[in-house]
Every structure is written in C-alpha cells, then in structure tokens.
C-alpha cells in the first residue's frame, strides 16, 4: 500500500491538485502619504500652506520681511515656556503653575534690577533659583503629599499670583533696567535674535537628554506607565522631582527672556502664556514622534499656532478674540486626536 505524503501532487482521493500559482514576492505599495510622512510632518506642511495662503490673502502685511522676522523671533518666549509644559507632560504630570512661575520671575527680575540695582546676571540666577524652588514645592505636593497634579499645581498658581502681587505691588516696572541687559535682549548675533538663540540652545539640550540618554528613556517610561516603571527598577519619584524642577526653571527662564526682550516687567505678564504652551505641547505630540510628547514636535507646533494666529490678526486687526479662538481650538483638536489615537492603539492590542 502506497502512502501519500504532504508533498505528493495527488490527494488521498487520487485526484490531481491544480498547480499552485507561481510564488511572487510581495510588493509593498507605498502611498503618497507614506512617502511624504504626513503622519509625522503634517505640521510642517500646514505651516507651508498657511504661509502661502496668507501671502496671497494679505501680501501687503503678512508677506513682508519685517513680519517674517517678527514672527520667527516672537516665539522665543512661548517656545521656552512650552518646553516647560512638555517636560512635565513627559513625566506624566500637568504642571499648571508654569505661567504663574513665569509671572513671579518677571516681577522679581524687575524688582532686583530696577529697585535694588542688582547685577543683571545675579538677577538671572536669582530668578532661575526661584523657579527651581517652586519646582521643589510642586514635587513635594505631587510625590509626598500625593495630591493630584492638576489640583496641586492649580493651587500653587493661586499662591504664586499672590506672591507676584506682593513682589510687584500690583504694578508693572517700565524703567530702571540695566542697559546692557536690554541691549542683549534686542541683539542679533549672526543675524539671529538672541532670545531665539536661547530657545534653540534650551531645546537642543532637552532633546539630547530625552532622546540620547538613559535618563530620557526612564522619564518616558515613568510618564507612560509609572507602576510598570517602578517594577522595572526605575526611580519614578526622583524622575518626577527632576521633571518638575526643570519645568520650574524653564518657566522662570521664560520670564527672564520676556523681560530681556521687552525691556520691562509687565505685572502678571506670564499668565497669557499658559494656553499657548499647552496647545503647542499637545499639538506637538502629533508631530515628529506621533503619540508622545517630544521637543521637536513642540517646536513645530509653536510655529503652526503662531502662523495661524499672526495671519488672522493681520487680516482681522479689530478682532482681539482671534488669538484665544485659534489656541483653544487647536488645543481641543490636539487633545481629541491624542485620545482617539490612544483608544485606537488600545483596541488593536
């Protein structure tokens, strides 16, 4: 009796099988979306489209070199405080006190220079030190007292608002700044605004730490899943402390940059920057490295928002609500997209 094996061209019933189709290597069809990496660089394409749109729509105001330079340089302050928001979000913490920290830094910078007459560089160190102290207090609230970060940092914002009023007596400081300090803020080494150089340097340092060092990998792990990170031996508490202290220092640095750029210390000048900072951070989570907060994505998002706001402001100069409308809409869209992406990944796993 003959036994048929699996490689026999006949079935057990003696009927021949049809010849199988010749094997062809699978070819992957690459769509235009794939080639252009729209999922990663959509923000850059949006910037290009918005620039082209506004240059055609309002060329006499938007399409000028003066407006372009102002648009690029004017985002240094927003950029620095957006980095503060990003670093806290990476750690899994909402630090809602960054704008209030910035406001304290502005008032302290003004008082120490214009009233006390302190050396501007010592003034900068004092402001950054205050930001670090605020970060330590936030870390104690979140890690030691176990208070929800949103509630804890929101309460801290109210306390800092009172501190700002006490420091500045509710007044903006317009005169008395060191001329060299103000001149440096308005300088353009190599044709690049000095305040923009500060943003670039800070962003480069943060990018390197987050993307090229173990600390960055541990911080991402702690923010994504703190319990799993703890079981893996990651010191989540220390990383949270480091992130909140860094966030506080960056927020204070944003206050120094603003004071240096405008040559004055506006009372509560940091408060309007909270919404732009978080809009940029959440929109940035859809760019470059979609699905997670990242430094380069935040920088791209800053200019997406800036170009949209600037163009609409120039087109509708009598509509002061345009800025809040654009920033709020972008924040809602970015957060909605993040929630949708998270649910989609959860359902597919």
Description:
Its main location: membrane. This is Sugar ABC transporter permease. It is a multi-pass membrane protein. This protein has a single domain, classed as ABC transporter involved in vitamin B12 uptake, BtuC, CATH 1.10.3470. The chain is built from 15 helices and no strands. The protein has helices at 32-36, 38-57, 65-73, 76-90, 98-116, 120-144, 149-168, 179-186, 194-212, 214-224, 226-231, 236-262, 274-284, 295-315, 322-348. The chain starts with 31 loop residues before the first helix and ends with a helix.
Secondary-structure topology with pairs:
Blueprint: H1 32-36, H2 38-57, H3 65-73, H4 76-90, H5 98-116, H6 120-144, H7 149-168, H8 179-186, H9 194-212, H10 214-224, H11 226-231, H12 236-262, H13 274-284, H14 295-315, H15 322-348
Distance between the termini: 50 Å
Number of DSSP strand runs: 0
How many domains, as an integer? 1
Task: Please give the share of residues in helix.
Answer: 55-70%
| Strand and helix order | HHHHHHHHHHHHHHH
Rg, alpha carbons: 26 Å
| Architecture (CATH level 2) name | Orthogonal Bundle
CATH class: Mainly Alpha
Low-confidence segments, given as residue ranges, are 1-15, 25-29
* Strand content range: under 5%
Note the total helix count. 15
Mean pLDDT: 88
CATH-assigned fold name? ABC transporter involved in vitamin B12 uptake, BtuC
Shape assignment: globular
> Main β-sheet, in a few words?
none
What is the SS-derived class? mainly alpha
